[in-house]
């Protein structure tokens, strides 16, 4: 991308200008090696001076005692914003209480591999504070090019340590997964395998702007409670302020996390030392804005063996990225594993840890018992969501079967169109849909719905006659329009929020476990209609995945009363519908049930002056609306 270089240069310039305000007396006397107190060697505050930018990265090292007796060990490293010294039990006690006890060592930390467990398996664990966070001085700019350059240096540092075998693996959840794609694309020396466990890979499409619509609520929650609360130089006791609608639950910087060793900085200094994601994502709307452009990387540059672990319930943040990451990584050896459950717990389940260890042993230690390196492990291994087992119930979810596949999407997929009717039906029979759409008409709902006051229409299938599996990508094809309200302003855009729901044969909606244990529907998808332009010549464009560039040049007008044909990308999903079950397609003008904390309710992004009005799905003899579904026939 042509803007890439200039963008990163100006970011660097901005950074250089501000670094002089940081304290310069770097303390290097704090690195302590404790060989006695724990079953492993514990090194605190090792300092890595950065070459790629101003600042340093501090990390804690946990390594097997044998690594002091001449045995060189492979390294698992995480680099992120939640504080290397923040104990899991204090960061989010509610989650910690439910953790597999085998992973609750003294130094367990949120979403990272447990040092107690992994040192016993012969691995060193290195946990670094990201640049600008905790004890690492520098410019805080999460998920940026600059911070991944620093991570790159940390990976190489791990490979070069005297106790290191030179082989480094990346293993972690969420942030500690999303960061893996970007650094792996830079190919640091020593990097030998990655396991992005529920990790989004596309900053714009997966995280910040869903179909172009700002996903503000989660970012506000995450940034204020878990990230900026940990900024280098921030007093621990400073109040955490967030506008996010949180319900009060969730992780945050604990009182037990230490103060910055070099001392605190004023709020003004700290403000200059960071890029604020809540502000940046509101102000930057397009992928050619410098802000987003500077975060781009090419997934095809990833070469290391990778095990991408996706969660069917991660429908608002990570799921898409794990699947796209698997599809497009340049690695010769890559696997996709799909699970269910919450985002914090399954990573530590015994059976999941066995997979992690089997994979890492193969590529970091050369101990390949499962045959990863010999093509013996099937490419795709996934849970099938069959039946109603409830949500947030790990034991009940054990009833779900698993199945292996040899490619993604599944080659035997029967891509099937299910047509909407003006009577709010959903049918695979095109003749029925055509007959029902003889006269031009529309199905309407009000714009600017919110989770608290949702505005939507639902299209429902007849009960399925036989068991039917849906697995893969989904597209919603529709003709839409907007008209002004009586005496209202003239609208100039439409936000489409699409949800797929599953109704059991008993007539009750089946909910699945969402990211935070909340009930979620099958899947969701989004589109801002002014950003409807699809780039069909892009190499990543597929009939089942309309590819959008989302640049400022892609913006197209939306005129009061005119009809627009759009293709909405709906995130991949899986369900096995039993005979008698129904499927519901919901089209809304804002968030509806199941979005949890990931609300799209920023008043600037969804300004009433642009969006207010009635939204319509339009029908007519030549205007068929349909859902493209991946139906999987039995093997
Ligand atoms: C290392 O840094 C932590 C903060 O990260 C601090 O609490 C601790 O005292 C330091 N350790 C030593 C040995 O100075
Ligand atoms: C589509 O994507 C390709 C590849 O990135 C790009 O070269 C081309 O300019 C894009 N087409 C349009 C019409 O934007």
TrEMBL record:
Residues 241-285 are annotated as: Disordered. InterPro entries: AB_hydrolase_fold, CocE/Ser_esterase, Galactose-bd-like_sf, Xaa-Pro-like_dom, Xaa-Pro_dipept_C, Xaa-Pro_dipeptidyl-ppase/CocE. Residues 357-628 form the Xaa-Pro dipeptidyl-peptidase C-terminal domain. Keywords: Hydrolase. Residues 267-285 have a biased composition (Basic and acidic residues). GO terms for molecular function: dipeptidyl-peptidase activity. The keyword Hydrolase applies. The keyword Hydrolase applies. SMART domains: PepX_C (SM00939). NCBIfam families: CocE_NonD. This is Xaa-Pro dipeptidyl-peptidase C-terminal domain-containing protein.
